[in-house]
Amino acid sequence: MPLLPIAQGGSWYAKDATDTDLLGALNAAYLAGIRHFDTAAGYGNGRSETLLGQFLQGKRESVFLASKSHTDDLTAAAAIAEVEGSLNRLSVDFIDLYYIHWPRAGRDMRPVMEGLETARAQGKIGAVGVSNFSVAQMEQVSEVGSIEVHQLGYNLLWRYAEAEAIPYCLAHDIAVVAYSPLGHGILTGKFGRDPGLMAGDQRHSILPFRADIWPHVHAGVEQMKRLAAELDLPLSTLSIRWILGQVGVNSVVAGGRTKEQVASNAAALEATIPATAFEELADISDAIMAHIPDAGNLFNHYP
């Protein structure tokens, strides 16, 4: 199963982005040579899949397409229905990679995997993946199916996957796709000492923005920004490339709402970066991580 070096995902459920903006971002990604497109049934209650389906008209054969389920009904039948819903919204008859989007703590996820294996046998999906799973949860669903890919949150501000999840994937030949490479915008360096989030901004729930953690995050990112300035590169470029250089990571989902964001993400692949810069980034990251507790995931989301 081919995984390209970088995947164009999407914060496409963002309410402040128009369909024209988002379709323009998709086109910019395609023109930049990106061919792995990642979405989910839950992004914008299906809006993301519908828009991507519009964009893929005439391009489907050249694209590696990934999506994810969004149901709380943890039955095989519901999983198959989720796949069919995604196929309909995407206006395709096959999805290359389909994930179980989130595990449910204390609940048996095996019926969902059984449903996806049935969908695979029916020729509706290719590879089966999981997202945000612990090792124990991966082992559970592996009893009834085969995991090819694990998509997990991983960046310079959130590296807990290095302890168990990534080593497990390496040992079991499971590809790792890292999402949130820019830490919800933090690793672009755009936030000041006061992040200035508006009321209702989903990032209020993101762990690094927590009031007692943010000063340490901000201080570390300021150090990263100085390093980026010395190299005359955007901090986002360093952040994406650092992830792609980590053992066990196969691909990065770098979301973009605008053509400009997509162009910046794609340009990261072409930059020349000295190994010493990656070492310095890791050192700064270590200092930041000392102040970020392992709360399970960046989102404080525990379905």
UniProtKB/TrEMBL annotation:
Domain NADP-dependent oxidoreductase residues, every copy: 15-284
GO molecular function: oxidoreductase activity
Keyword annotations from UniProtKB, A to Z: Oxidoreductase
SUPFAM superfamilies: NAD(P)-linked oxidoreductase
Taxonomic superkingdom: Bacteria
Name listed for the protein in its UniProt record: NADP-dependent oxidoreductase domain-containing protein
The species this protein was found in: Devosia insulae DS-56
